[in-house]
Amino acid sequence: MTKLKAPVPAAADLDGGLAALRGDCARMAPHWAVPDRITPHPVSPSLIHGVEVPNRSARLLDAMSEYGD
Q1: What is the distance between the alpha carbons of residues 58 and 55, in angstroms, rounded to a whole number?
Q2: Contact between residue 61 and residue 68 where contact means Cβ atoms under 8 Å apart
Q3: Is the pTM for the entire model greater than 0.70?
Q4: What is the pLDDT along the chain (69 residues), one digit of tens a residue?
Q5: What is the dihedral of CA 28, 31, 37, 41, to 10 degrees?
Q6: Contact between residue 38 and residue 31 where contact means Cβ atoms under 8 Å apart
Q7: Element of type H or E holding 17
Q8: Three-state SS at 20
Q9: Distance of CA 57 to CAs 10, 49, 53, Å?
């Protein structure tokens, strides 16, 4: 039986398109380890510091009913 080789994309086509991206992902999938279960650890509020929200963003969120009511 003859082994067929996949076509090599042209050198100028750096992106390769969606089909090439899907092929790359399929080849990489076995290399990605997925944990059985992810358990988030609580973070103490005292460790959360240095977060600054611009006034414009705070006013925008305050004006939205989902966030302000």
Answers
A1: 5
A2: yes
A3: no
A4: 566 666 655 554 566 788 888 888 888 888 888 888 888 889 888 888 887 888 888 888 777 766 545
A5: -90
A6: no
A7: helix 17-28
A8: helix
A9: 46, 18, 7
